[in-house]
Amino acid sequence: MHAAFERHQVRYLFIGKAGAIILGFPDTSQDVDVFPMKDERNGRRLVAALREIGFDLSLERETDILRGKDFVEIKDGPFDIDLIFAPDGIETFEEAWARHEDVEGFPVCSIDDIIASKRAANRQKDRESLDRLEEFRIYLRQRRP
Amino acid sequence: MAKRPLSVRIRYGFIRTYRPVLDDEPYRSFETMEEYRQWCEQNLPKWLGFARI
Fold first, then answer.
1. Measured between beta carbons, which residues in chain B are less than 8 angstroms from residue A80?
2. N or C: which end of chain B has fewer CB within 10 A?
3. ipTM for the whole complex
4. What pTM does this model have?
């Protein structure tokens, strides 16, 4: 996925549990959470990249992505993906991008933004992982030079 | 940072099981996050953990 997104110059960030896993959090997720920049040109790039990977995008799906509906979930592709154009707890893509982490070329929301997003969503499953994510943040900071 | 390479963390970090209702449709989209959260609360089994506290 990452290679296709790079080829098509999609502006995006991994977020949620997916982002945390890429940062090194030892957990599992059932889907890949992606925070794309909401912009029609970026949407076109995103659609092209998803099609290249093997997602079957009908006109309806393409339109939803180009419009940047806040939440789009696709479960019949090569893997389950959530496109979250307006994640809770994060003001703008550009602000999140300014704080993002690059993990071997993978653009990932900062652990601060991942935690902020989960805290703002405030679901049972977020609440269950927040304490561990906060401890993981301390671990990450201690490991950094 | 992590001792296991990123490729291994990705290979084993993402799994596909089955979540009732949530995984029964191939596609959904929501105009707003609030609409999505409400749909989750009204339709998903509570034990999946998607309801807000």
1. 16, 23
2. C
3. 0.93
4. 0.95
Contact criterion met (CB below 8 Å) for A27 and B14: no
For residues A40 and A65, give the distance between their C-alpha atoms in angstroms, rounded to a whole number: 9
A111-121 and A124-143 helices, crossing angle to 10°: 160
Digit-coded pLDDT (tens) for A94-141 = 999 999 999 999 999 999 999 999 999 999 999 999 999 999 999 999
Pairwise CB contact (< 8 Å): B1 & A143: yes
- Pairing type for strands A32-36 and A81-84 reads parallel
| A34 bridge partner residues | A14, A83
The helix or strand, by DSSP H or E, that contains position B12, with its residue range, turns out to be helix B6-13
Q: Do the Cβ atoms of A121 and B52 come within 8 Å?
A: yes
**Backbone phi and psi for residue A74, each to the nearest 5 degrees, phi listed first:** -125, 125
Q: Is the pLDDT of residue A93 over 90?
A: yes
Tokens encoding B24? 């029964």
Residues in chain B: 53
Residue type present at position A10: V
